[in-house]
Amino acid sequence: MVRIMKFFYSLSLVLILLLSSTTTISAATAPAPAPSSAPTDIIRILKKAGGFTTLIRLLTTTQVSTQMNAQLLNSNNGMTLFAPNDNAFQSLKPGFLNSLNDQQKNELIQFHLLPSFVAITNFDTLSNPVRTQAGDDPERLALNITSSGNQVNLTTGIVNATLGGSVYSDHQLAVYQVDKVLLPKDFFLPKRPPPPAPSPEDKPKDSKKKSDADGPASSADASSANKRGVMLLLLTFFLVAVSSLL
Fold first, then answer.
1. What is the domain range of residue 57?
2. d(CA 113, CA 173)
3. Which of 127, 130, 191, 229 ranks highest by number of CB atoms within 10 Å?
4. Topology versus the membrane, per the UniProt entry (predicted)?
């Protein structure tokens, strides 16, 4: 009996020492966090510039600002934002913004975003129609950009706007003020009919039933095998411990 107690006492000490040394090594080798510059924040940029209250509200409520900040942090392509100021939004038809649902508001903001950084001197290198974050549908989401000298014009088929100058640029994010809100044709064209529902013959009923029938049995077999493995491991450890005491 004394030998058994000594054995378990020694085993406990060994386990405590192992845990203590492992914790110490982990703490000693943990690398110090590398210093990093402050991430780009589009809301902070627009607030500092001033005059973009409505755009800031839309960027926030649609969560596009969060998506932009994350993309700028994880991508090397950069982004370009065409930023209508408050005067541009006030020139819209009264009640227009309130008539848009959440999906349309998201599309409206994404339509003002290019998925790459474009310097103010490089607009003449773009191929029309320019792809925006809203998509590349040439009929419903077309955005054409032309430049002549120092003037850059944007047209959607609904709105003709002019670039008013650079608000911010850091070779990763470019923000340019525009004098009008860019409205995509998608808002004014008839809605596309939804795709037809699949016919009953197309649904793989037999394969689904077979999968449902096989699933629980397979899970039960795997669980039973795991339990047997654990019991065998515990039994082996017990026999080794007892044999060491004899």
1. 42-184
2. 11
3. 130
4. Lipid-anchor; GPI-anchor
